[in-house]
Design goal:
Homodimer. Pfam families: NAD_synthase. It is an enzyme of class 6 (ligase). Belongs to the NAD synthetase family. By secondary structure, the chain is mainly alpha-helical. Strands 3-2-1-4 form a 4-stranded parallel β-sheet, with helices on both faces. α1 crosses α2. Bound molecules: nicotinic acid adenine dinucleotide (DND), adenosine-5'-triphosphate and magnesium ion. Nicotinic acid adenine dinucleotide binds next to α5 and α9.
């Protein structure tokens, strides 16, 4: 294991850097603030806290978007975050929308992944409905760990205007959350996409965030070879190669869609 934790000084610098980034993005776009989806999870909770610090509560709009597979605990935590932050928010049930979509293409019914991703994309439609109507930017909540292995829905939760915490590994997200005052019950929560019942990030990815963050920092974002990473972290080659595979296969999600080069 390596120590990716920030010092207190670094935590304050990250906080200033990210809040300045949010302000700059909103100002540069001439927008009237931000909208973000609140899931009760740590990524959106931290991003909400930082957006309020950056823009003021009156300039942040939260959307709590329960599906039938959402846990009541997470949805009530999401509302509590909005209330604690004193931001305006709406609660919109998305399952009727998902049902209409499936009624037009019943072949996909029961396809857990396709329906789960459709839930994430319905949320994106609602985020942009509010962003268009209120001249806001959609603030993303993705972190570096998820982005690096493609653990997000393309044009779903990945459909955003900026990624304020996009350079932080998951462990660092938890650390910064505690630093800015997110309650411990939220900072310590198990990460879940809640696209289907009983889903957890670590269960689906087949690796703990602790190990994933270490491999990303050392090998994918860092300079060490597979062999050196295995020696340093005391993990097996198969695990490092698996992370490398997820990183390579998800490259298309991190880039703009390609077009053929222009003919000469
Ligand atoms: N090489 C390639 N070049 C260009 N495009 C490529 C491609 N390979 C697939 N594609 C396209 O990408 C699609 C697959 O990508 P996508 O639709 O995203 O689907 P996919 O990556 O299969 O699934 C999304 C994953 O992210 C997880 N997730 C989603 C949302 C939130 C969270 C969370 O942590 O909260 C996690 C979810 O549990 C699942 O494991 C394909 O159907 C195809 O259209
Ligand atoms: N029920 C929901 N209502 C509103 N937004 C949601 C909902 N579920 C997911 N989202 C949006 O999708 C994002 C991606 O989900 P993800 O699970 O990666 O983050 P999180 O829930 O904030 O944190 P964690 O990964 O620790 O669960 C959320 O941060 C949030 O913006
Ligand atoms: Mg979540």
């Amino acid at each position: 294991m390596i120590d990716l934790r920030f010092s207190d000084g670094e935590l304050e610098r990250q906080r200033d850097h990210i809040t300045a980034f949010i302000r700059e993005r909103v100002d540069a776009a001439g927008a009237d603030g931000a909208v973000l989806g609140l899931s009760g999870g740590i990524d959106s909770t931290l991003t909400g806290y930082l957006a309020v610090e950056a823009l003021g509560a009156e300039n942040v709009h939260g959307l709590v978007l329960p599906a039938t597979v959402s846990s009541e605990g997470n949805m009530s935590d999401a509302e509590l975050v909005a209330q604690d932050l004193e931001i305006s928010y709406d609660v919109i049930e998305i399952e009727p929308i998902v049902d209409v979509i499936l009624s037009t293409y019943p072949e996909a019914e029961g396809d857990r992944e396709a329906v789960g991703n459709a839930r994430a994309r319905v949320r994106a439609v609602l985020n942009y409905l509010v962003a268009n109507h209120e001249s806001r930017l959609v603030v993303g909540t993705g972190n570096r760990s998820e982005a690096a292995v493609g653990y997000f829905t393309k044009y779903g939760d990945g459909a955003v205007d900026c990624h304020p915490i996009g350079n932080l590994y998951k462990g660092q997200v938890r650390q910064l959350a505690r630093h800015v005052g997110v309650p411990e019950e939220l900072a310590a929560k198990t990460a879940t996409a809640e696209l289907w019942a009983d889903q957890t990030d670590e269960g689906e990815l087949g690796i703990s965030y602790e190990t994933l963050d270490d491999i990303l920092a050392t090998h994918i974002d860092g300079p060490l070879s597979v062999a050196a990473t295995c020696r340093l972290l005391e993990v097996d080659e198969e695990t490092v190669e698996r992370v490398r595979g997820m990183y390579e296969r998800s490259e298309h999600k991190r880039n703009a869609p390609p077009a053929p080069v222009p003919l000469e």
